[in-house]
Specification:
With about 210 residues, the protein is an alpha+beta fold. The protein contains seven helices and eleven strands. The longest helix is centred in the last third of the chain and has 16 residues.
Length: about 210
């Protein structure tokens, strides 16, 4: 099956380093980042897993549960955890799904049709509390994932879910945003009493941090 933005993340039950996981139950009312690895004991993924562990305060601040996946069994995951702690200085405090049967990899379309069928693609899925998939990224084996960018994207999703806005190019939290074209000027004035700048009728900029006039 093809995974698309806006669809409900497929549910599954699978073993992990934190025991048996029923995915939708495990999600609860949280956001989640599900990210996959082609196999254990690979150099790039080792650095990534350490970084995700180090970012624990950032995940907690955003109500996000990270969860990893690799095609190897749980026993191999635990051995890899030791290597990650030794080399990256961080102990994994989130589950790593074991997917030796390829069940989850297939469910989430993580197997490239022209690659080794036992190896997953390096995918990232951001899932919201309603269990909808909100962002999908796929990285090549040689390029480490940028989790700062993934956090930035989650910040944008959470902010734009709450307001009639979108975030422009290279936006960072606290910077001006754009007002949804769906809002009339009258409604925009009501929702943003601090005022906004109109560059084009479809391009209106507002600083959410600005004080009300």
């Amino acid at each position: 099956m093809t995974i698309q933005l806006g669809q409900i993340a497929p549910d599954f039950e699978q073993d992990s380093t934190h025991g048996r996981i029923s995915f939708h139950d495990w999600l609860g009312g949280s956001w989640s980042v599900l990210f996959s690895h082609p196999k254990n004991f690979t150099p790039v993924c080792t650095t990534e897993l350490g970084e995700v562990a180090k970012l624990r305060p950032e995940w907690d601040k955003r109500n996000v549960k990270p969860i990893g996946l690799s095609v190897d069994p749980v026993e191999a995951h635990h051995k890899w955890e030791s290597d990650i702690q030794e080399t990256q200085g961080a102990k994994l405090d989130f589950p790593m799904i074991a997917d030796p049967d390829g069940k989850v990899s297939t469910l989430y379309d993580m197997i490239h049709p022209e690659s080794d069928p036992t190896v997953t693609v390096r995918s990232v899925f951001v899932i919201d509390p309603s269990r909808k998939i909100r962002l999908i990224l796929t990285y090549p084996p040689s390029t480490g994932r940028n989790f700062t960018e993934i956090l930035r994207a989650i910040d944008s999703l959470q902010l734009t879910d709450a307001r009639s806005i979108a975030t422009p190019v290279n936006w960072e939290p606290g910077e001006p945003v754009v007002i949804s074209p769906k809002l009339s000027d009258e409604e925009a004035a009501r929702q943003f009493p601090q005022g906004y700048k109109t560059l084009k009728p479809y391009l209106r900029i507002v600083d959410l941090q600005a004080s009300v006039r």
